[in-house]
Design a protein that fits this description.
Order of helices and strands of chain A: EEEEEEEEEEE
Strand content of chain B: over 45%
Order of helices and strands of chain B: EEEEEEEEE
Structural class of chain B: mainly beta
Distance between the termini of chain B: 36 Å
Strand content of chain A: over 45%
Structural class of chain A: mainly beta
Largest sheet of chain A: 7 strands, mixed
Radius of gyration of chain A: 13 Å
Radius of gyration of chain B: 13 Å
Number of helices of chain B: 0
Number of helices of chain A: 0
Helix content of chain B: under 10%
Number of strands of chain A: 11
Oligomer: heterodimer
Shape of chain B: globular
Largest sheet of chain B: 6 strands, mixed
Number of strands of chain B: 9
Distance between the termini of chain A: 40 Å
Chain lengths: 117, 108
């Protein structure tokens, strides 16, 4: 059974950093595309980043240069390193398995990130 | 960047049909995916590749895509279908995934 579980969220001050992790079971992260999607309070879904099986990465313009997506093959983990955080980065962050044409077929339960002084 | 436009809300009586549109420039040339999100829960994919249903999704959910409009159709609507629905595509020109703003479906 495919499962995803995010961790690492919390409260951080503006300008600070946080690293999110996503643990997968039932499949191998490095053999798949993986995305991060976020949802600000009361708002819609916003795609954040993707990492392809070959290691290629892409980012939304709103996070480019501040966020870095990566993976740990030995632990079957996906990460999102978030630097220079802004109040507008406050959201629930989801990791999701991303398939050939961008469809997100499995999602984690989400982790809360709050950026506030 | 590619933009997807959805109506903010759709209301439907139980047993009737709900249609949710997703407009984008020549969206018919892209693969459209749809997600259902209930309050406090993670999104769930209900349609992929315009009209395919994942395992476990009722046949009442159907999708179509042509020209500048993709449509999610929910037949014989039930109270449990009340949720936010999002359309999404892969923009191959930027390799970014794009979501519509979402449509809140209310069952009267």
């Amino acid at each position: 059974e495919v499962q995803l579980e995010e961790s690492g969220g919390g409260l951080v001050q503006p300008g600070g950093s946080l690293r999110l992790s996503c643990a997968a079971s039932g499949f191998t992260i490095s053999s798949n595309y993986m995305s991060w999607v976020r949802q600000a309070p009361g708002k819609g879904l916003e795609w954040v980043s993707v990492i392809y099986s070959d290691g290629t990465t892409h980012y939304a313009e709103s996070v480019k240069g501040r966020f870095t997506i990566s993976r740990d093959k030995s632990k079957n983990l996906l990460h999102l390193q978030m630097n220079s955080l802004k109040t507008e980065d406050t959201a629930v962050y989801y990791c999701a398995r991303d398939e050939a044409r961008g469809e997100l077929d499995y999602w984690g339960q989400g982790v809360q990130v709050t950026v506030s002084s | 960047s590619y933009v997807l436009t959805q109506p903010p809300s759709v209301s439907v009586a139980p047993g009737k049909t709900a249609r949710i549109t997703c407009e984008g420039n020549n969206i018919g040339g892209k693969s459209v995916h749809w997600y259902q999100q209930k309050p406090g829960q993670a999104p769930v994919m209900v349609i992929y590749y315009d009209s395919d249903r994942p395992s476990g999704i009722p046949e009442r959910f159907a999708g179509s895509n042509s020209g500048d409009t993709a449509t999610l159709t929910i037949s014989r609507v039930e109270a449990g279908d009340e949720a936010d629905y999002y359309c999404q595509v892969w923009d191959s020109s930027t390799d970014q995934r794009v979501f519509g703003a979402g449509t809140k479906v209310t069952v009267l």
